[in-house]
Design a protein that fits this description.
The structure is a homodimer of 368-residue chains.
Chain A (H helix, E strand, L loop, with lengths): L1 E5 H12 L13 E6 L4 E6 L3 E7 L2 E4 L1 E6 H10 L4 E6 L4 E6 L2 E6 L16 E6 H9 L16 E7 L2 E7 L3 E8 L7 E6 H10 L7 E6 L3 E6 L2 E6 L18 E6 H11 L11 E6 L2 E8 L2 E13 L2 E5 L1 H9 L5 E6 L6 E4 L5 E5 L8
Antiparallel strand pairs in A: 1-5, 1-7, 2-3, 2-6, 3-4, 4-17, 7-8, 8-9, 10-15, 11-12, 11-14, 12-13, 13-25, 15-16, 16-17, 18-21, 18-23, 19-20, 19-22, 20-21, 23-24, 24-25
Helix pairs in contact in A: 1-2, 3-4, 5-6
């Protein structure tokens, strides 16, 4: 095999497939990128068996062939080569030389015979969204998936399509994050759970471009993303997702509208007084026209008043500040509205059209 | 005590004295910043008993007094406050409130009675250099001090003043780095060993300004730096420094001039094939007109030719690539000149005027 690339194309493509290289594995073949130039196009593939990525690479095939090459060392070499033409050539023993100007690396590769290609996906049910919209909806929800595997379903996000709308839900037992986007054209009803890891990795490949689209295909076991020259295939998480609609009530006793930036900055300041691992809540005291935020810890105390618009009852309620911060950070509105019932009931932050809904459970606190 | 600052002044001063706050200590008072507003000026001091920093802070004293306040929490609070006037007020129990707009923090401080002020330094022997020059000379040598305490003297740098020249030397048993700068005006002959930690911390406070000067004062046990509104005092390391002049020979068998960037990039690339903790050398083979750099490791092999100007014998020699990289990175010249004797003798990289001298010991290698 002998192929010639220019460095920038090569790096771009290597960086894309790197996202499907597992950080630890007992199977060395999974740590490899398959470079397939057996036809007239060059394709790079990486596949950790849960998540697989294939991308087409611009380059000149001088001699057809394929190899599987260790992803880590290959990507590091490519990155450090001069900014010029890079030639990759392998002999019959798969010893591969990577040449650029006067620099010449030689490393052992594999035949690629035992490499697992991406599974075949029936392209029936699909939607299309802009790369930017998909990237945003992931960023705005992914922080509230659970990071431990005790409940597998919580480590993924619900992708639910109905009535021409994509609803994405993430929850971890303390909070729920929901975002919706409208879809164009007809789409089937779909309800799948996509692994959080897949969503994290894909959002690192997606561009910020609102004009470039991703086609997303669904089967019973897989989700497939197609965009630019890249295909990403991921297994789905099996099981029934939580009945989220039942958890979100529309009744409230107190409704508060507050400047998002002031609220966020104030909560952010309060976290200074919480030592790592400490579960100290912040206490929010809402009266007419004013929200007082306060915290008392071994390190000291803080309090701050913020002007608000308020309807309904006064309320005092405690929260883990982290959860409020996570939600407020991904809301772009200047003002946010909080809906509260009492100090034991979840707080809901949502916009009028419910394009976003963030539910956060309160925590007990000692008034003082 | 009651003082009003604007945020940017306050942060700047806190960041300066923070450099003398130890990361770990069993004495809580050392973790404090002393805020002294007992006179008409405000001074912040921190002192870990080896290194002490005092800086004058702009602000309005409304009520005189002093406190010692935990540096970590104080600096974090100040950083997160709105960008506005900050008021610090302490009561008779040293409970200190920090107020900015509507945010109010309250933390316990100490009286500052048991705080160690900086030692008194007799200002007799001194030199003056620009902040930029001092910062540069530290950056260009500090990487070759030893990082373990087995040989205390190696953890510091020699500051030697004679004949109107400041010579700074750092060495760690594998290499020696020497830089010289000319001094203006008369100066006494001085020879002291300054702790590497002091130099690292001070170079973080110094500005990049060539017009701003530092006055450096020397006593038998201390070095004092005076610049802007700040005073830094450090203990010196006791003992006799190594006789460096005897280690640097002026004879050579091979003299090579090479483009610095090409040489550095090539060595940098070769390090990809060295696993962490591995002591694999790179091999440099010098013949007329060409320097070949090669490495063979379990990960693969690399070789690269670089055009050179050469005088004298051919030579093949092995190096720890790290040491070459460290030296080449801090040399600003387009071309560098290497002086070599044989594969057992150190390589010297120096300019014609010996404003810099970098000596690097070779390592054994298996030719092949």
């Amino acid at each position: 095999m002998k192929i010639v690339f220019n460095k920038s194309n090569l790096i771009k493509s290597v960086n894309i497939v790197l996202k499907a290289i597992p950080s630890r594995t007992t199977m060395p073949i999974l740590e490899c990128i398959l470079i397939d130039a057996t036809t007239n196009i060059i394709e790079f593939t990486a596949n950790d068996m849960e998540l697989g990525i294939k991308t087409q690479v611009e380059g000149e095939i001088i001699e057809k062939g394929k190899i599987a090459i260790d992803a880590k060392i290959f990507s590091e070499i490519v990155r450090k080569l001069p900014d010029n033409e890079i030639t990759i050539e392998s002999d019959s023993n798969f010893v591969t030389t990577i040449t650029c100007e006067k620099a010449k690396f030689s490393i052992s590769a594999k035949s690629g015979e035992d490499f697992s290609y991406l599974p075949y996906i029936e392209k029936e049910k699909s939607i299309s969204v802009s790369q930017f919209a998909l990237k945003e909806i992931i960023r705005q929800t992914i922080f509230s998936i659970a990071d431990n595997e005790n409940n597998k379903i919580m480590t993924g996000e619900l992708f639910e399509i109905s009535d021409g709308e994509l609803k994405v839900v993430a929850l971890d037992g303390h909070r729920i994050s929901i975002r919706k986007i409208e879809l164009k054209g007809f789409s089937d009803d779909i309800k799948v759970i996509v692994p959080g890891k897949t969503l994290n990795e894909i959002s690192r490949i997606l561009s910020d471009d609102n004009e470039n689209f991703v086609n997303i295909f669904f089967t019973n076991n897989h989700i497939l993303f197609e965009f630019d020259n890249t295909t990403v295939v991921s297994r789905l998480i099996e099981g029934e997702y939580f009945k989220v609609n039942q958890m979100i009530s529309n009744t409230y006793e107190t409704k508060v509208t507050i400047n998002k930036r002031e609220f966020l900055n104030s909560i952010d300041r309060s976290t200074l007084l919480i030592k790592e691992g400490d579960k100290k809540p912040i206490i929010i005291n809402i009266v007419d026209g004013s929200l007082e935020l306060k915290i008392n810890s071994a390190l000291g105390s803080m309090n701050e008043d913020i002007d608000i618009d308020k309807e309904g009852k006064d309320i005092m309620i405690g929260f883990n500040p982290r959860f409020l911060i996570d939600a407020l950070r991904v809301i772009d509105d200047e003002n946010v509205t909080l809906y509260l019932v009492n100090s034991k009931f979840p707080c809901i932050i949502k916009d009028e059209n419910e394009k976003y809904i963030y539910l956060i459970l309160p925590v007990n606190f000692v008034a003082g």
